[in-house]
Amino acid sequence: MKERSGIHIGVIPDGSRRWAKKNGIKDYDGRQSGIAMEKIVKHVFEKYPEVAELSIWAMSTENIGRVESDKSLVYSLLKGKINDLIRHRMLSKKDIKVNVIGSRLKEMPQEVLNVVREISAQTKDNKGPILNLCIGYGGKEEILNAVMESSRWLRSNPMIAKLHENIFEGFLMVPRPLDIVIRTGGEKRLSGFMLYQIEYAELFFVDTLWPDFGTKEFDKIMKEFKQRNRRFGE
């Protein structure tokens, strides 16, 4: 991968439903999950200027296969999360560009697509750090789509004899390699998150459920990351 300046952090926010069960909340509406996301996004971009990109996996491709009533709750939560970001002054203050990515975005209800278009249009010219909201996203699908698109590109550019790495990466939804991946909720797996970008990422699996994950725990991860000796395969 081409070396880029700045840190790219990926977050797999797991454990919201277990948090609700643990706290005796029967009809969980995801509000605490949204609050946790807003808190971490704000903290990252205000305290860590070295962070050039933050990717949060808000909804996987598997989530789309859920029962209809469950999906309605997830879609409502997504709409609320994005609306909160649209109203947040931090986007203009920090000049943040928001990308909403996912190979199955078109399957979302119109009201979700409307807020996706709104936040994309509102921040498209921003030159600061990037916030990627991964919705209807799967790492395998991202790679497959990039393979198909790059193959089409090669066929239309016969003067190029070989597909180079930097060309292929240009067809990924998120070209920048990951430096840090944080997964909350205690599970020690990646579940298909950014499979191409994760090659040399430092992995942090924390037991804390997502709604309880706070800025102090994030700061501990950043401190440990800075102390690690990254050899990039050497």
Outline the structure in words.
This protein is an alpha/beta fold and 234 residues long. It has a single domain (7-138, 180-226), classed as Decaprenyl diphosphate synthase-like (Undecaprenyl pyrophosphate synthetase), CATH 3.40.1180. Helices cover 42% and strands 16% of the residues. The protein contains eight helices and six strands, in the order βααβααβαβααββα. It has helices at 16-22, 31-47, 68-87, 90-93, 110-123, 139-156, 165-169, 215-227, and strands spanning 7-12, 51-60, 97-101, 130-137, 180-183, 202-205. A six-stranded parallel beta sheet has the order 3-4-2-1-5-6, sandwiched between helices. Helix 5 links the parallel strand 3 and strand 4. Helix 2 (31-47) packs parallel to helix 3 (68-87) and helix 3 runs parallel beside helix 5 (110-123). The longest helix has 20 residues, at 68-87. The mean pLDDT is 88.
Number of helices: 8
Strand order of the largest sheet: 3-4-2-1-5-6
| Rg (C-alpha, Å) | 18 Å
Enumerate the spans where pLDDT stays under 50 for 5 or more consecutive residues: none
CATH topology: Undecaprenyl pyrophosphate synthetase
**CATH top level class name:** Alpha Beta
Q: Distance between the terminal alpha carbons, to the nearest Å?
A: 15 Å
Q: Summarize the helix and strand pattern as letters.
A: EHHEHHEHEHHEEH
Instruction: Report the structural category.
Output: alpha/beta
Biggest sheet layout:
6 strands, parallel
Question: Quick one: CATH superfamily?
Answer: Decaprenyl diphosphate synthase-like
How many structural units, i.e. domains?
1
